[in-house]
Structures are given as structure tokens and as C-alpha cells.
Amino acid sequence: MADITVTEYLLLHQKQSPHATGQFTGLLYDLILSGKTIARRITKAGLLDILGGTGEVNVQGEDVQKLDEIANRIMIYRMERCGALCAMSSEEEPELIRVRPEFPHGDYILVFDPLDGSSNIDANINVGTIFSILRRPDGNRGEVALEEVLQQGVRQVAAGYILYGPATMLVFSTGQGVHGFTLDPGVGEFLLSHPDMRIPQQGHVYSVNEGNWKNWSAATRDVIDWFHNCPSPTGSPYSSRYVGSLVADFHRTLIYGGIYMYPPDAKKPDGKLRLLCEASPLAFLAEQAGGKASDGMGRILERKPDKLHARMPLFIGSADDVTAVETIYAKHA
Ligand code: AHM
Ligand code: MG
User: Which UniProt keywords apply (predicted)?
Assistant: First the structure.
């Protein structure tokens, strides 16, 4: 099993997937190359004086870390040249990035968060690149319109993330289950290590920033209280875990089960996480792994963004845990 490289895997599955044309496989290949380049920069960050902030604030009003900026540049540079894209959207860029005329164009649109969890970088804690791949609506040609990117998550062709942790991992789905690959740094290849990942039906971990308690509604407090009081499948209380890197918290949830939550609060009525580049791709993975993703009322994958950086509350993980949240919100509605 560990001998299958991601390139081999993509070629093997190219024929089986309706989307997996040569163009699509090339896109994933360049995405993987970008991820490997970012992983290398992160590993050396402490040695190269690229930790810390740039002193700038991004489109989301957050401090830009030097590695955020580097990861963003690596992604845009490599992916604009891949030949499969017509446009991109990055969490770090206010506007849609249209592939310039001097580069070959394709039918795909790439949405990404170049370095999720970047407030953790200086502490050497896991961060990751999250990506979502959309297809341009059939027959559309010429300059890409913003509306073409504002698609519901159900229309994603593929989604995934690269987690830069103790080991660098690539986890993705093209709609045929979720598969995890671990980077062997010696040979520089991602090897299949976690085929067909499944989220347990119910978990024993809840993950939320409880520092926001005083800004939560009565309904949200009831949700969190439910996890304080409900026994987990082992009979013990749920454990609390919160890294503060969505991609790391999601990865743990995918492996062990449980739930990650970023609810709305008085200061952030739509929650914090971006629908297109964070919630939607992870929701695609959660559903492909047998779990659920909700905004508290319904399925994340059916939500249509009204702008590039639209935010949405997120409850994601084991199906029973997410259903419990929806039931509590419905009682309060
Ligand atoms: P980022 O993409 O700028 O890193 O912001 C998103 C991050 C998530 O990774 C994480 O789950 C969340 O913000 C943590 O927010 P908070 O510090 O409010 O708990
Ligand atoms: Mg992020």
C-alpha cells in the first residue's frame, strides 16, 4: 500500500473519474508541487528569518504573516502556469485572480487558503493549505465572471488540504471517497498511507474556541453544554481539543471523529470561516468520509456564497454530533 505514489494513484484513477481528464490530473500535480514547495519553506522558516508578521493586514482584517505571503505567492505563481485554470481565488487576495492571457487557459477554477492557521506559525504548530476545485459552467468562454466562482459546494470537482505537521500529508477527494498521502521527505513523494478515510459515526471530542462564550447566543451555549453533558460512545465525557488551525482540527476530527465548531457570535454574526476556501472544501471531505457539515441549520454544501469572501458558521465532523447541533438550533428557532 505504502508504495503507491500520488502520481500513480491519479493516473490509475484517471479513467474512473468523470472529471479526471489529463488536464485535471495536471492541475492536481501542480497543486501537489506547490504544497511540497510550501512544506520545504515552512520546515526551514526558523532558519531563514521568515517567521513573524509582515506588518500588513489582509483583506480579512488579519495580520499577514511572512509565510502567509510566501505560500500565497508560491500558489499563484505555480498554478497560473498549470494550463488547467481560468481563474483563482485566494484567501489573501481581495479580488478574483484571472489567469493572464500569456498563460494557457483551462476550464477549472481553484479556490484556496494558502496557509490556514497562520497565527500558529511562530509556535511551530500545524498549518495547512486548503483547496477547492470548481469547473467553469459549461460552454462559458472569455473573461471569467465573479458569478461563475460563486458556486454551491456540491458542485466542487475536488477538494482537499495539505497539512504541514510532524509529517506533511495530502488529503483529498475527487468525489470517490477521501484518501490520505504522507510525504516521504527522502524521496520527495506523497505515498498512499490512508486509503478511504471514514469519520466515525459519533466521536468523543468537541473542538471550539470557548473564549467566545460571552458572545454566544443562548442556542449556541446550549449546543456547547450538550457536549459538556452528553456521554461519548466510550461512556466518558467528551474531551475538549482546540488547535486553532482549522485544517489541523479538521484532520484530527477526520481520524478520531467528533466535531469542530465555529459558531456565530455577537461580534461575528456569520462566524469566522470563509465559505469558499475553508468551509466548503472541508464539508466536501466530511461528506465523502461519511460525516456531515452544517451551518447549524442545514448543509454547508448547499449554501451559495454572495461574495468571494463570504463567511459562514461551521459545525463539521461525525454525523451524529453534527445532527445533535442542528436539533438544538432547530428547537431554539
Ligand atoms: P486563517 O485562515 O487566517 O488562519 O484563519 C482561520 C483560522 C482557522 O484556522 C481557525 O480554526 C480559526 O481561524 C481560529 O480562530 P479563533 O482564533 O477565533 O479561534
Ligand atoms: Mg484559513
Answer: Carbohydrate metabolism, Cytoplasm, Hydrolase, Magnesium, Metal-binding
From the CA of 98, how far away is ligand 2's center (Å)? 21
**CA–CA separation, 183 and 188 (whole Å):** 7
Name residues whose C-beta falls within 8 Å of residue 19's C-beta, 6 or more positions apart in sequence: 135, 157, 158, 174, 175
Question: Is residue 60 pLDDT above 70, yes or no?
Answer: no
What topology is assigned to 205-332 in CATH?
D-Maltodextrin-Binding Protein; domain 2 (3.40.190)
- Assigned fold of 6-194: Fructose-1,6-Bisphosphatase; Chain A, domain 1 (3.30.540)
Contact call for residues 263 and 315 (beta carbons, < 8 A): yes
pLDDT higher than 90, residue 106: yes
Mean pLDDT is lowest, of 102-106, 138-142, 234-238, 301-305, for 138-142
Pocket lining: 317 vs ligand 1, CB cutoff 6 Å: no
Q: What pLDDT shows up at residue 18?
A: 56
Average pLDDT, the chain: 92
Enter the pTM of the model. 0.94
Spacing, Cα 131 to ligand 1 middle (Å): 16
